[in-house]
C-alpha cells in the first residue's frame, strides 16, 4: 500500500456534504459487522465498481498531523528584516520552499525548473536531500498557504536519489500558483564573505528565514548525517548562516535569489559550522538523472507482497444494507469494510482500520454512488471524531490531499 498518505492538505468541504457523511457514518467507531445469523455469503450489490487499493490512514506519517496543519495555517507576523532586498527575497521565494513530511520526520525542499525533462510531470519537481526522504517512495508535501487559505498536503513521489551526494528529486502533482521555480546559480559567484540566505523548516518552525556569510568552499568533503548513516562525499559550501534539523533539503540562496546550494548538515558540536551541497554537485546530479541514473526503486510492494482478500460478504448486523469485509494488509484480520446501504439516498462508505486496533479510523464516501470516491474523514487520535478531511479528485480510495477537519456549527 502507498506510504505517502501520512500527511495533510487544503480547501474546505461544504458543510452539508460533511454533515450528511458524518451522519451516515455514525457511530464513528467499530468497523461494520456482519449479521450473526447469516450463513452463506451474499454478494454486495455494486461492490465491483469500487477501488479498494491504496486507502491508508494519514497517521502513518506521524501523529498530530491536524495540529501540524493548523500551525502551518496560522498567519505570519509582520516581516522584520534589515533591508527591503531581504524582505523581497523571502516574500518571493518562501512559497517555493516546501515542507517534506515522512514517517521518520520532516525537512525542506525547493521547487526547481529543469533545463530538460528528467521525467514527465504536469506538476512540479522538488530538490531536497536524500536523507530527508530516506527509504520512502512517496512523501507528503506542504506548500506555504496563501492568505486566508488552509494548509494543504499533496502527494510527492521520490523519483531520483543520489545517496553519495545526498540529493533527491521529488515529483508533485500540483503546485500552487504563487510558487515559482528557484533558479540555479553557479559556483563562480560563490566567494568567501558573500551574503547568503536560507529558507526552511527548522525544528518545526515553518518557513524560517536566516542570513549569513559564505565561510569557505570545501571540495570533496566527507560527512555522515548520523554515526550509523552512510558516508556522503561532495563539494560543499561552508556557511555560518544558521540552520538546524528541518532546514535540510532547503535552498542556500545568493543575493539575487538563485540557489547556490542545498542545506544539508551541521558539523560537529561547534557553532556556525553549517554546510550545503554545492550547486556544482546539483548540476552533476541533474545531468546524470537526465541520462537515466539514480532512479528510486519502489521497494514497498517488493518487501511486503500482499493481495487484498475478501473475508466476508453479506448483510450488515443492523439489517440496513450489505457489507464486504476485506483483509488489505495480509494481517489475517478485517482492515477495511465496504458498506452499501439499502437506502439509495445514503452514501456508500468504505471504513479503514489503519492501526490494527479493531476500530475504524478512516471513512471514505461515495455520495452519488457512482463507483468513485468523493471525500473521506480520518480520526488521528482514535476518539471516534474526525480530525482530517481527505479529497479524492481521481475517485480512488487513496486521498490525493488532506486538510484539517473543522466541525460545522
What does this structure look like?
It is a single chain. Helices cover 12% and strands 32% of the residues. With 409 residues, the chain is mainly β. It has 2 domains: 15-53 and 308-404, no CATH class; 60-303, Thrombin, subunit H, CATH 2.40.10. Strands 1-2-3-6-5-4 form a 6-stranded antiparallel barrel. The chain is elongated, with a radius of gyration of 23 Å.
How many domains? The number is 2
Going by CATH, the architecture of the largest domain would be: Beta Barrel
CATH topology of the largest domain: Thrombin, subunit H
How are strands sequenced across the largest beta sheet?
1-2-3-6-5-4
Q: How large a portion of the residues is in β-strands, by DSSP E?
A: 25-35%
| Total beta strand runs | 20
Quick overview of this protein structure:
By secondary structure, the protein is mainly beta. It folds into two domains: about 15-55 and about 310-405, no CATH class; about 60-305, Thrombin, subunit H. It has helices at about 15-25, 65-75, 85-95, 130-135, 280-290, 300-305, and strands spanning about 95-100, 105-110, 125-130, 140-145, 150-160, 165-170, 195-200, 210-225, 230-240, 250-255, 260-265, 275-280, 310-315, 320-325, 335-340, 350, 360-365, 375-380, 390, 400-405.
Secondary-structure map with pairings?
Elements: H1 15-25, H2 65-73, H3 84-93, E1 97-102, E2 105-112, E3 124-128, H4 130-133, E4 138-143, E5 152-162, E6 167-172, E7 195-200, E8 208-224, E9 231-239, E10 251-253, E11 259-266, E12 274-278, H5 279-290, H6 300-303, E13 309-315, E14 321-327, E15 336-341, E16 348-352, E17 362-366, E18 375-378, E19 388-391, E20 401-404
Antiparallel strand pairs: 1-2, 1-4, 2-3, 3-6, 4-5, 5-6, 5-20, 7-8, 7-10, 8-9, 9-12, 10-11, 11-12, 13-14, 14-15, 15-16, 16-17, 17-18, 18-19, 19-20
Amino acid at each position: 500500500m502507498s506510504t505517502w498518505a501520512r500527511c495533510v492538505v487544503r480547501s474546505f468541504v461544504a458543510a452539508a456534504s460533511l454533515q450528511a457523511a458524518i451522519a451516515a457514518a455514525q457511530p464513528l467507531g467499530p468497523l461494520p459487522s456482519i449479521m450473526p445469523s447469516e450463513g452463506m455469503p451474499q454478494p454486495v450489490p455494486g461492490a465491483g465498481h469500487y477501488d479498494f487499493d491504496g486507502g491508508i490512514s494519514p497517521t502513518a506519517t506521524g501523529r498530530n498531523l491536524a495540529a501540524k496543519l493548523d500551525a502551518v495555517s496560522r498567519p505570519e507576523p509582520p516581516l522584520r528584516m534589515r533591508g527591503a532586498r531581504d524582505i523581497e527575497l523571502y516574500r518571493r521565494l518562501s512559497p517555493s520552499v516546501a515542507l517534506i513530511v515522512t514517517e521518520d520526520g520532516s525537512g525542506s525542499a525547493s521547487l526547481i525548473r529543469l533545463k530538460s525533462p528528467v521525467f514527465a510531470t504536469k506538476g512540479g519537481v522538488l530538490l531536497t536531500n536524500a536523507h530527508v526522504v530516506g527509504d520512502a517512495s512517496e512523501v507528503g508535501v506542504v506548500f506555504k498557504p496563501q492568505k486566508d487559505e488552509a494548509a494543504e498536503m499533496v502527494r510527492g513521489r521520490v523519483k531520483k536519489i543520489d545517496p553519495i551526494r545526498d540529493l533527491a528529486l521529488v515529483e508533485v502533482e500540483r503546485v500552487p500558483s504563487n510558487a515559482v521555480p528557484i533558479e540555479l546559480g553557479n559556483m563562480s559567484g560563490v566567494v568567501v564573505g558573500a551574503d547568503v540566505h536560507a529558507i526552511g523548516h527548522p525544528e518545526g518552525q515553518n518557513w524560517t528565514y536566516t542570513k549569513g556569510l559564505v565561510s569557505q568552499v570545501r571540495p570533496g568533503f566527507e560527512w555522515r548525517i548520523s554515526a550509523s548513516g552512510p558516508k556522503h562525499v561532495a563539494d560543499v559550501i561552508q556557511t555560518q548562516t544558521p540552520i538546524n534539523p528541518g532546514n535540510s533539503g532547503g535552498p542556500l540562496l545568493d543575493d539575487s535569489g538563485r540557489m547556490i546550494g542545498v542545506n544539508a548538515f551541521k558539523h560537529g558540536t561547534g557553532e556556525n559550522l553549517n554546510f550545503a551541497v554545492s550547486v556544482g554537485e546539483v548540476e552533476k546530479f541533474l545531468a546524470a538523472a537526465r541520462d537515466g541514473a539514480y532512479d528510486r526503486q519502489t521497494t514497498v510492494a517488493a518487501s511486503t507482497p500482499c493481495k487484498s482478500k475478501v473475508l466476508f460478504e453479506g448483510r450488515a448486523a443492523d439489517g440496513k444494507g450489505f457489507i464486504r469485509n476485506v483483509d488489505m494488509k495480509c494481517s489475517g484480520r478485517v482492515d477495511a469494510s465496504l458498506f452499501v446501504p439499502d437506502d439509495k439516498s445514503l452514501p456508500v462508505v468504505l471504513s479503514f482500520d489503519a492501526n490494527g486496533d479493531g476500530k475504524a479510523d478512516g471513512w471514505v464516501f461515495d455520495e452519488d454512488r457512482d463507483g468513485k470516491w468523493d471525500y473521506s474523514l480520518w480520526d488521528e487520535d482514535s476518539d471516534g471524531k474526525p480530525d482530517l478531511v481527505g479529497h479524492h479528485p481521481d475517485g480512488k480510495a487513496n486521498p490525493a490531499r488532506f486538510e484539517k477537519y473543522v466541525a460545522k456549527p
